[in-house]
Amino acid sequence: MTGATRAEYCVIACAEAWRGDGEVLASPMGLIPSLGARLARLTFAPDLLLTDGEAMLVRPDGTPEGWLPYRQHLALVTGGRRHVMMGASQIDRFGNQNISCIGAWERPRRQLLGVRGAPVNTLNNPTSYWIPRHSRRVFVERVDLVCGVGYDRAAGARYHRVPRVVSDLGVFDFATSDRSMRLASLHPGVTVEQVREATGFELAVPEEVPPTREPTARELRLIREVLDPAGTRAGEVAA
């Protein structure tokens, strides 16, 4: 196998979000997170549940393996037994996420998706984030509208947890005393200064930042030959 691409490191970083979760419903939103969830199921997280987004539990290849009744889906959604990976138009140092609008909500400069299910996701399930273009426009000091709830607003929420944020530059967590965002690992070829310059708030950075875990030969084969033989991942992360 040839060396891994940046996109493949991102797939690995997303897959790692579900490590140790056990039998929970993975809800990845977007191409790279979906590849990550399916890779996790095929390797280190065999108990992970995957869904077609409607009413079926599926195998990593998309073929049905079970039925997901609406009542059972609601039990998973509200009881901490689902791990979501959403996107973010904006995210701040405490993990508050915005996907609704840019600017004041009364007269926004730009209308986006809307709040949708972000509050329920973040208060009732572990929620990670995938951001394919790390920039100061996304990593902001204060989000314009809180959709997904961060650590500074989630007091008393039983199932609230933000395990990780994955971007095209690295992996981030909230393993700090004040639950602010920390740089957890760097993708190959990325420097700490690059990350700092692309982040609109003061990021917690340890003295030594490890590299993002390298894919194994088996994982690369699964990504390239089984999960994404058409190479669509490169369209989301080109480096």
UniProtKB/TrEMBL annotation:
InterPro entries: CoA_trans_fam_I, NagB/RpiA_transferase-like. Keywords: Transferase. It holds the Pfam family CoA_trans. GO terms for molecular function: transferase activity. It comes from the Bacteria. Its EC number is 2.8.3.-. Belongs to the 3-oxoacid CoA-transferase subunit B family. This is CoA-transferase. It comes from Streptomyces olindensis.
